[in-house]
């Protein structure tokens, strides 16, 4: 005969003991403030700032050619994120790209992240810690400064 304890395990719902309380907890980052995960709002505004600046440059020199805009954006991301750890938009929004161990992102990470970011799909697929596939591929994280 079926007993209540036999069906109680699935009635109580899934096991939530290993689900993190906030993005970045599994990575050892603080919940808020300096060093915490940069949330979607800051990221979106930063990329809009970067794209807008690249649009202005392309308008001035390339008659707003869409390929030129994408190329300027890619170069900006590669050079600035690879060397400084942030683009112009990141700097304005006070966020920074760094490795999971806290080290600077590096030039290779800047190049790979930029290529994947330009493909768009890897950037919009995120994990529980709000890291896109481009960040996961290079073991980087976008944090608040």
Automatic annotation (TrEMBL):
GO cellular component, one term: plasma membrane
Span of the signal peptide: none
Key words of the record: Cell membrane, Membrane, Transmembrane, Transmembrane helix
Domain RDD positions: 72-138
Membrane-spanning segments: 44-62, 68-86, 107-126
Main subcellular location: membrane
InterPro entries: Pra-immunoreactive, RDD, UCP021697
Membrane protein topology class: Multi-pass membrane protein
Superkingdom of origin organism: Bacteria
Localization terms from the record: Cell membrane
Name under which the protein is recorded: RDD family protein
UniProt organism field: Arthrobacter wenxiniae
């Amino acid at each position: 005969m079926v007993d209540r304890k036999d069906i109680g395990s699935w009635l109580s719902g899934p096991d939530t003991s290993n689900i993190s309380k906030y993005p970045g907890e599994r990575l050892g980052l603080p919940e808020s403030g300096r060093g915490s995960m940069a949330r979607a709002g800051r990221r979106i505004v930063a990329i809009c700032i970067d794209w807008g600046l690249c649009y202005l440059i392309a308008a001035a020199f390339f008659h707003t050619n869409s390929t030129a805009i994408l190329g300027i954006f890619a170069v900006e991301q590669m050079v600035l994120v690879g060397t400084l750890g942030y683009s112009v938009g990141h700097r304005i929004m006070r966020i920074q790209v760094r490795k999971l161990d806290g080290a600077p992102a590096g030039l290779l990470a800047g190049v790979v992240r930029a290529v994947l970011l330009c493909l768009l799909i890897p950037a919009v697929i995120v994990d529980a810690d709000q890291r896109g596939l481009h960040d996961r591929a290079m073991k980087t994280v976008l944090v608040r400064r």
